[in-house]
DNA sequence: TGACAAAAACTAATTGTATTAGTTATAATG
DNA sequence: CATTATAACTAATACAATTAGTTTTTGTCA
């Protein structure tokens, strides 16, 4: 009866915490409503339903990660910036496993809004790679390479899917080295 | 009443087709039961429930992919074999989007059986990389690199998550070039 | 062959969640 | 102070997963 004073941002924000605690597949509107001190139908005043909530979590997560990555590359350029951005991605993804699942599963082509969820983030990476002597088209390819690797590797870590006992941190570092050395071979020679 | 003559393999096999048609998140036991000409509780004679079914789909998918990859590297060695194996992975993943989702989401560390789902597949890759002049430990790291990239890139393709209009096939080829050139820098010099 | 046991189907019932419809109370606005 | 929009509520619906208990078939063994 007493008005709780919820708004959409509060719901999303609380759901983002909760999804990291219980996992994307286990979150329910009832659970979220209980936590917010409200009955579950009341949530429909702020979100469109469970699917909509997960979609919004996806967008929320990518925006947050974008901020982290922008912070991480301030004052750095070239391969060091790539390295720093990749580390920021990996850290955010593994610190927020539930949210990261939403980011992966719901990042589908559906409409302009969902499509733009990641565009800001990867335009940051584009700016970074553009400072290298690599053609624009190849920069776009490289971003896809990095994106694929970062998303897949982070998912595997979150799922504890690496059976081997060898260090995951070292695997990540070596992977970045491999990728960066590979990218260097795409640099165009400059006439002297 | 009349016995349909189902067994676990038939259920899994049919579910594998269905999951590619309707998507992992939309498959229901009722739908599967209807399709198999049976009531949904009857499925419990063959599977442990919906979660168990998805787990079994995960294992089924990895085994099938393993076979495809083994076929693809027959008679090839070195970097050509890596290339061929990666192509086989990518093709299987994109030809079976629903099943591949199960392979990603349910490939978590839970018990020995789920852990071993992918061990055969990656021991094939290990044999391939072992023929290079690279330390065993680095081979293990490289496999993780490839695994991360392949899983992430395939997922992005299946989700149509690449906004850019540039060719995805070219992105994949360039990515493999980047990875292989990067891996080459790990080769240990041989005394002459 | 014929009784018996195991397996595989069934029906009925339970539970839990999302979602919708319709109602009431609060807050904001003129 | 009256009115209106909003945000909560209760009640009801629909659907799927799952469990319990029953029936029927199939295969086996004396």
Write the layout of secondary structure elements.
The structure is a homodimer of 192-residue chains.
Chain A: H1 8-22, H2 29-36, H3 50-73, H4 78-95, H5 97-105, H6 112-116, H7 119-130, H8 136-158, H9 168-184
Helix pairs in contact in A: 1-3, 3-4, 3-5, 3-7, 4-8, 7-8, 8-9
Chain A binds a DNA duplex (30 and 30 nucleotides) through loops.
Descriptors:
homodimer, 192 residues, mainly alpha, Tetracycline Repressor, domain 2, 9 helices, 0% strand, DNA-binding
- Summarize the biggest pleated sheet of chain A: none
- For this structure, what is the CATH homologous superfamily of the domain at 58-184 in chain A? Tetracycline Repressor, domain 2
Number of strands of chain A: 0
Instruction: Point out poorly predicted stretches of chain A.
Output: none
Task: Characterise this structure.
The structure is a homodimer of 192-residue chains. The first copy, chain A, is mainly α and 192 residues long. Chain A has a domain at 58-184: Orthogonal Bundle (Tetracycline Repressor, domain 2), CATH 1.10.357.10. The N and C termini of chain A lie far apart (77 Å). Chain A is 68% helix and 0% strand. The model of chain A has no long low-confidence stretch (mean pLDDT 94). Chain A has helices at 8-22, 29-36, 50-73, 78-95, 97-105, 112-116, 119-130, 136-158, 168-184. The structure holds a DNA duplex (30 and 30 nucleotides).
């Amino acid at each position: 009866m007493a008005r709780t004073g919820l708004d959409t941002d509060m719901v999303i924000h609380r759901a983002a915490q909760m999804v990291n605690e219980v996992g994307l597949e286990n979150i329910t509107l009832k659970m979220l409503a209980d936590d917010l001190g409200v009955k579950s139908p009341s949530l429909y005043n702020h979100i469109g339903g469970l699917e909509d909530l997960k979609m919004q979590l996806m967008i929320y997560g990518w925006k947050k990660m974008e901020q982290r990555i922008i912070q991480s590359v301030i004052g750095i350029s070239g391969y060091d910036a790539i390295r720093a951005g990749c580390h920021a991605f990996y850290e955010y993804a593994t610190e927020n496993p539930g949210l990261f699942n939403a980011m992966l599963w719901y990042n589908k082509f559906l409409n302009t809004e969902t499509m733009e969820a990641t565009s800001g983030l990867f335009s940051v990476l584009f700016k970074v790679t553009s400072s290298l002597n690599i053609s624009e088209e190849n920069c776009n390819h490289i971003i896809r390479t990095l994106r694929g690797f970062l998303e897949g590797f982070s998912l595997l870590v979150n799922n504890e899917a690496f059976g081997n006992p060898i260090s995951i941190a070292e695997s990540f570092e070596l992977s970045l080295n491999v990728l960066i050395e590979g990218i260097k071979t795409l640099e165009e020679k400059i006439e002297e």
